[in-house]
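DATA SHEET
Item: assembly model
Revision: 1
Owner: S.N.
Input lines:
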Amino acid sequence: MHPADARRALVELLQMAYSGERAAAYAYLGHIRSLRRPAEAPDREMLRQVLVEEIQHRRIVRSMLRSLDAAPDERRERKMRRIGLTIGALCRVTGWYGPMYGAGRLESRNVVEYEVAARLAHQAGCDEMAHRLLELAEVEWDHERKFRERASSHRFWRVSPHWAAPAPRSDIRATFHDFVRTDKPVPALRWTPLR
Ligand SMILES: [Fe+2]
Ligand SMILES: [Fe+2]
C-alpha cells in the first residue's frame, strides 16, 4: 500500500477507534452505576479499571490523530456518545450478563482494530506509532479476557453464541513482526482474530 493511502486509512481507523472508546467509556460508566449491591463490588472494581484504561486510550489515540494532522470526526463522536449512553442506561434493566457478554464481544473487535491500525501505521512510515498501537491491542486483549471470564460464569453462556476467541496474547506481536518481515498486505478489518 502506498504510504499516503495507508496514512489516510489509518486516520479513518483512528477516528473510529477514538469514538469507539467514547462509547465504551459511557457504556462502562452506566454499567458501574447499575451495580449497587455490595456483592457486586468486584465487578464494579473490574469495570472501573477497564474504564480508566479506555479513557487513557482515548488520550493516546487523540495525540496520534494530532500527530497525523487530523482531528476526531465530530459526527461520529456525537453518534458514539449516544450509543454509549443508551447502552449504559440499558444496563440498569438487563442484569449483568448482557453487558458483560456484549463488552467481551466488543473488546475482541478492539484487539483487531488496533492490530490493523498498527499495520497501517507501519506502512505509513510511523513505526513508533505502530508499536504503541500494539500495546493498545494488548490491553484490549486483557479486557476481552476479563469480560469473557465473567460472562462465561453465567448459566446463559452455554446457550449463547460465542465470538471467536482471540489468538494467544503473544501472537499480537508475533503476527505483526511476521507482517513486517514478509511484506504482506494489510488485512481487511473483519472483526475476527488475525492469524
Ligand atoms: Fe480501549
Ligand atoms: Fe477495551
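QC remark: The mean pLDDT is 93.
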